Amino acid sequence: MSGFDPEWLALREPADTSARSSTLTVKLAEAFPLERPLRVLDLGAGAGSNVRFLSPRLLSKQQWTLVDHDAALLARASESRGIDRSMCLIDVVEADLSRFDNVSDLFATRDLVTASALLDLVSDEWLRLLADHCRGAGAAVLFALSYDGRIECWPVDSEDQTIRALVNRHQRTDKGFGAALGPDATAIAAAYFKRLGYDVSVDSSDWRLTAADGVLQQQLIAGWAAAATELMPLDKALIDDWKHRRLEHIACGQSLLVVGHQDLLGLPPAHPSAVKSPV
User: Which residues face 110 on adjacent strands?
Assistant: First the structure.
C-alpha cells in the first residue's frame, strides 16, 4: 500500500469535512446507546481526519483504535487537537492494511468500523473479507468519501471526458490491495453488506471546489494529468495541453470542480436501529 503525503491529507481535510453526509452522521450517532463507550476501529486512519470529524458528532463516549501503516501519520493523529479527551480515548496500531490478516484480529468487540477515502482503493476480495469481519463482530460501518467516478469541470473543456475516462481506468489499477474497485466501490460494498443483512444507506459526499480551493484544484488537475499520462504516454502532449488550460482557469479564479464521492452507513441486523434487508 502506497503512502499519502501529509500535506495532501491536510489540504483535502477541509473539503472532506464540508462534503461528508450530515444525514448519515446523525443517523449513526442516534443508533448507539449512551450507557457505555463506543468502541471504534478506524482503518487507514492516516493523520486522524476521521476521528476529528466523527468524535465530536457522536453522542456517547468513545474508544478509538486508529490503524495505518505510516507511524508518522499515526503520531500526528494521536496528538490531534480539538478532540475532547474526556469523551474520546485514542490508541494507534501500525499495520499494513494491504494484507487483511494483519488486521483481522482487531475487529472483535467493535461497535463501529469506519474509514475515510479507503474503499475505492481496495480489491473485491479485500472488501468481502472486510464485510465478513464486520458482520462477525456485529459492528456498524461508516465508510466515507469513496470516489464514484464523477468529475465535472467548469468551464467545460473538449478533453474533459477523455481525461475523466482515463482517470477512472487508473482508479481501477492496483493501489496496493490488488485490482482496485475504484468508482464501483460503494455499490459493491452496499451489495455485500445488504447480503449480510445490514440496513444500508448511501448518500453523496461530493467535493464542490470553488476559486477559494485553488491549491487543492491545482493538485487534483496535476494528479489527474499524471494518471492519464501513465496510461496513455503517447498522448502526453494532448494531456499536458488540457492540464495547462485547466490550470489557467484556476489561476484566473474561474474554475469550478465537482468530484463525486459517496458515504455508506450500514447497521447490522442485530442492531435495534437496523431493518434487515432481503438477501
Answer: none
Predicted structure pTM score: 0.94
> Cα–Cα distance between 228 and 235 in angstroms, integer?
9
What end-to-end distance do the CA atoms of the chain give, in Å? Answer: 33
Summarised one tens digit per residue, pLDDT across range 126-140 is 999 999 999 999 999
DSSP states of 170-235 as a string? HHTSBSSSSB--GGGHHHHHHHHHHHTT-EEEEEE--EEE-GGGHHHHHHHHHHHHHHHHHH-GGG
The Cα–Cα gap between 111 and 171 comes to: 31
- Report how far residue 65's alpha carbon sits from residue 92's, in angstroms, rounded to the nearest whole number: 5
Scanning the chain, the segments in alpha helix (DSSP H) are 6-19, 22-30, 49-54, 71-78, 124-137, 160-171, 185-195, 214-231, 236-251
Scan for cell 481526519, then name that residue.
Answer: 49
* Half-sphere exposure in the Cβ direction for 256 (13 Å, CA): 6
Of 75, 21, 56, whose CA–CA distance to 205 is shortest?
Answer: 21
CA angle 144, 268, 206 (to 5 degrees): 15
Instruction: Copy the grid coordinates of residue 156.
Output: 467545460
